[in-house]
Design goal:
Blueprint lengths: L30 E3 L10 H8 L8 E6 L5 E9 L2 E10 L4 H6 L5 E2 L7 E8 L2 E8 L2 E8 L5 H14 L3
Antiparallel strand pairs: 1-4, 2-3, 3-4, 4-8, 5-6, 6-7, 7-8
Helix pairs in contact: 1-3
Length: 165
């Protein structure tokens, strides 16, 4: 059975000229980006599993300029012909676990640890796991490869273990 592709719009990284954070006057964006200085939460072994190869260089944080001029940060790793990106957010509406549970078209990934909710989404960027753990929402996206559920589980457990308590 083919899994439908779901387009996920970028998350606003800062306020619009009118002061709103999601393009609608006075509304609050559902997520806040760049909440950790270092978003490289997935260990080298788990990254190698996601990428299907050892990372060419250690994963590193990089700043990205969005088309609207806003800047945001993500952790990137490249290995073989695949790229992985890790982002960390906090939620402004409900809990991270609630946000993850509400992801339409998502398939749950079990075995990721107590108090952790993880789902797999097919996005334009490639397969992406959203993780709700404590006060953080973590996304792990892989372009150029479809990791196995066990590789996703390993990456989720690695990321959650690296989150601040």
């Amino acid at each position: 059975m083919a899994v439908p592709t779901r387009t996920v719009p970028p998350v606003p990284a800062g306020p619009a000229p009118d002061g709103s954070t999601d393009g609608t006057r006075g509304a609050v964006a559902p997520l806040t980006a760049d909440v950790l200085t270092d978003e490289c939460l997935v260990g080298a072994e788990a990254l190698a599993g996601l990428l299907g190869a050892e990372p060419a260089v250690p994963a590193a944080n990089a700043e990205i300029a969005r088309p609207d001029g806003a800047r945001t940060r993500a952790c990137f790793a490249v290995g073989g012909s695949s790229t992985a990106a890790v982002n960390v957010y906090t939620t402004n509406r409900g809990t991270p676990a609630d946000h993850v549970r509400s992801a339409g078209g998502a398939r749950g990934i079990d075995g990721t640890g107590d108090g952790t909710v993880a789902v797999l989404l097919e996005t334009v960027a490639g397969p992406t796991v959203q993780v709700g753990a404590g006060r953080y929402l973590v996304t792990i996206a892989v372009a150029g490869r479809n990791p196995t559920d066990e590789q996703w589980r390993t990456a989720v457990r690695s990321a959650v273990a690296a989150l601040p308590r």
